[in-house]
């Protein structure tokens, strides 16, 4: 399995590649669907949440990982998650992993927004969609890199 630094490096490199693809596609004459849904605002929101998920919302929050330690005093918020999910269990499932982390984080975030009296209905829906895509893609890449490294390890060291 890749360690925390390797996961972060993989995610950052893939984000740079993805941003390069967006940049290239935005300069071509055939913009099509890209022009309708992808703009500077969406790319910034997607990228920020992708990076946030890379460094703070790893599927490895169920162990004392780099992501878990970055939460500092707020890591107590992840204690129920840590005791509920076993490492490499549901948190590392391609379908359930991102969903579980996203729902758990959303519950934490919405609780905070309610406690601070921020009116959730005024958050633009497109911001939420781009944020979710960034978070989910970051988590999926983490899980896929774990799967790929496990497969390679089983092939090379049989």
How would you describe what is shown here?
With 158 residues, the protein is mainly alpha-helical. The protein has one domain. It has helices spanning 4-27, 33-37, 40-56, 66-70, 79-84, 96-115, 125-156. α1 (4-27) packs antiparallel against α3, α1 crosses α7 and α3 packs across α7 (125-156). The protein is flat and about 50 Å long.
Largest sheet: none
The number of distinct helices, counting runs of at least 4 residues, comes to 7
Number of strands: 0
Helical content (DSSP H or I, runs of 4+): 55-70%
Radius of gyration: 17 Å
What number of domains? 1
Task: Classify the secondary structure makeup into a structural class.
Answer: mainly alpha
Beta-sheet strand percentage?
under 5%
Identify low-pLDDT runs: none
Order of helices and strands: HHHHHHH
Kindly, what is the distance between the CA atoms of the first and last residues, rounded to a whole number of angstroms?
16 Å
Q: For the residues shown, what is the average pLDDT? A: 86
Net shape: flat
Topology, pairings included?
Blueprint: H1 4-27, H2 33-37, H3 40-56, H4 66-70, H5 79-84, H6 96-115, H7 125-156
Helix pairs in contact: 1-3, 1-7, 3-7, 6-7
Question: What features would you highlight for this structure?
Answer:
158 residues, mainly alpha, 7 helices, flat
Q: TL;DR of this structure?
A:
The chain contains 7 helices and no strands.
